[in-house]
Design a protein that fits this description.
alpha+beta, three-stranded antiparallel sheet, single chain, 13 helices, elongated
Length: 440
């Protein structure tokens, strides 16, 4: 069963490159890890959770750092001090002015049942009190260690969350300044919000905060020291039971007594240690190989999908090429028919008189235009021929007969109706002309 850590948040300047590699679980980063310092179980990585603040989607920490750098210059008129600077105080003592840390990272201990909403509640309280905004939260449930690498049941998870803070006041362009009391209040907020026991105050422990990796090593050293003390106590007790330390030593030389058993156990443990390290490495390599095989299979699947799409695309291209070739063939055929038609029409019209030729062309234009009646120009060409003939109805019949080779049956009826209308119109005009002459 996992030991519940006490509530705390250790906030420090963010190492952007390492932070992003760690939180993304980059393959090259995982390979570079020393299992004795950080152990990640990739099969548990899917349990991790990520929060990205609104407006930060798709923005890297380096891009946001560059934005804050420009913001500081705009608001203060001075370039942001990025590196530590040495200076001498009024007493001539050399001091160091720390460089600006516009982006900071906090590591928060969490419980197995801690939810992202709990952490959001916490960062919102921090924002309301001091104005500091959390831009990313990464909950990690895949880190920890095996007390016995050969026994899966001895897994001890290191449950925690990384909170990435924007530590710049966007109104003034200056860093937020929090004193020791403010930082203590932050620890209170973490404990209260996450419903965890608060860690000991710094003034109680009189200890500086350690980096997370160093903290793990310190714990390991502490456990080792406790084990050494326990062994020493057992040795003293066994020496007493055997009479004195000399007797116990003699018993040990002859391989007898409880002290000798402990020495044998220590020897066995020392021999087992390289095996345990090798087992951890094999387990890590096995998980890494499984993850690599998974991604390889995914890539092969994607390649197959791309290959299928390329095949479909080539098929579509070939089909369109065939369609275009068929369309080109039909167009060429139609152009050939039209050219032949024009040639025959020209030959036929050359046998007609000029006025009749004009009337027939007007009829053909009318049919091809799709209009309901002759246009003004078409009607004029027909009338010019009919005016040259004394019998208007006979002239209309001649125009219709000369146009028949170029007309369909339904078109023939339309032309016949238009010609009849022109004949009737011309007769009415002649009658009106006669009437005007009679009155004169």
């Amino acid at each position: 069963m996992a030991t519940i850590a006490k509530a705390s948040e250790h906030i420090k300047p963010c190492n952007i490159a390492q932070c992003e590699r760690h939180n993304r679980r980059d393959e090259d980063y995982i390979k570079s890890l020393d299992p004795a310092r950080i152990y990640v179980r990739l099969e548990l990585t899917h349990n991790n959770e990520i929060y990205i603040a609104p407006g930060m989607e798709g923005v890297t920490l380096q891009q946001h750092y560059d934005y804050l750098k420009a913001l500081v210059k705009e608001k203060t008129g001075r370039a942001m001090q990025e590196k530590d600077v040495e200076y001498k105080d009024k007493n001539g003592k050399t001091r160091v002015r720390k460089g600006s840390s516009p982006i900071r990272e906090g590591v928060v201990n969490i419980k197995p049942d801690t939810k992202m909403d709990d952490l959001l509640n916490y960062v919102n309280q921090v924002h309301e009190k001091w104005g500091i905004r959390a831009i990313q939260i990464h909950m990690h449930r895949d880190e920890g260690h095996y007390e016995n690498p050969e026994d899966k049941s001895t897994w001890k998870p290191n449950l925690h969350a990384h909170i990435i803070w924007d530590w710049i006041d966007h109104q003034t362009g200056k860093s937020f300044k929090l004193n020791a009391d403010d930082m203590s209040q932050i620890q209170d907020m973490v404990a209260e919000t996450l419903e965890m026991e608060r860690g000991k105050r710094k003034e109680e422990t009189r200890a500086e905060h350690l980096e997370r990796k160093d903290f793990i090593l310190a714990n390991q050293r502490k456990q080792s020291a406790e084990l050494d003390n326990e062994i020493a106590e057992k040795r003293d007790r066994l020496n007493t039971e055997n009479g004195n330390a000399i007797v116990s030593g003699v018993a040990n030389l002859f391989g007898k007594g409880k002290y000798a058993d402990i020495e044998k156990e220590n020897k066995r443990l020392k021999e087992e240690l390289p095996k345990q390290k090798a087992a951890i490495q094999r387990q890590y390599q096995k998980a890494l190989d499984a993850e690599r095989n998974h991604y390889t299979q995914q890539l092969a699947k994607k390649d197959k999908q791309i290959e299928d799409l390329q095949g479909k695309y080539k098929g579509e291209v070939f089909r369109h090429q065939q369609d275009n070739q068929e369309k080109d063939r039909i167009i060429r055929l139609k152009e050939s028919v039209i050219n032949d038609y024009r040639e025959r029409l020209g030959h036929y019209l050359s046998t007609l008189s000029e006025l009749l030729r004009g009337a027939v062309k007007a009829v053909i234009d009318y049919v091809q235009s799709g209009y309901r009646s002759f246009s003004y120009r078409q009607e004029g060409d027909v009338k010019r021929y009919m005016n040259s003939q004394s019998d208007k109805e006979a002239a209309a019949g001649t125009v219709l007969k000369a146009s028949l080779p170029f007309l369909k049956s339904d078109e023939c009826e339309k032309v016949k109706g238009q010609l009849s209308y022109i004949v009737q119109e011309m007769k009415e005009e002649q009658q009106q002309s006669r009437n005007r002459g009679f009155h004169m």
